[in-house]
Design goal:
Elements: E1 11-19, H1 24-27, H2 30-33, E2 37-44, E3 51-55
Antiparallel strand pairs: 1-2, 2-3
The structure holds zinc ion.
C-alpha cells in the first residue's frame, strides 16, 4: 500500500479501537449511522508523515 500523496510505501503504525461517540470530529455524520466502536488500522507514511486510517472488518 502506497501513500496517496507522495507514493512512499506506508508503514503499519498501530491498531486502535475508536469509540465513535468521542470521535465524531473524525467521522462526522458517519458516527450517527453506527454505534459502539470501530476497529481501525493506522498507517503512517515515512516520507510525508501523512496518516491513513482503514476500517478493519472482524
Ligand atoms: Zn507520503
Amino acid at each position: 500500500m502506497q501513500c496517496l500523496r507522495c507514493g512512499t510505501e506506508l508503514e503499519h503504525l498501530s491498531d486502535e479501537e475508536i469509540q465513535l461517540g468521542h470521535n465524531s470530529f473524525l467521522f462526522g455524520s458517519f458516527s450517527q449511522m453506527l454505534s459502539g466502536s470501530l476497529d481501525v488500522k493506522i498507517y503512517v507514511c515515512p516520507g510525508c508523515k501523512k496518516l491513513e486510517f482503514y476500517h478493519e472488518e472482524d
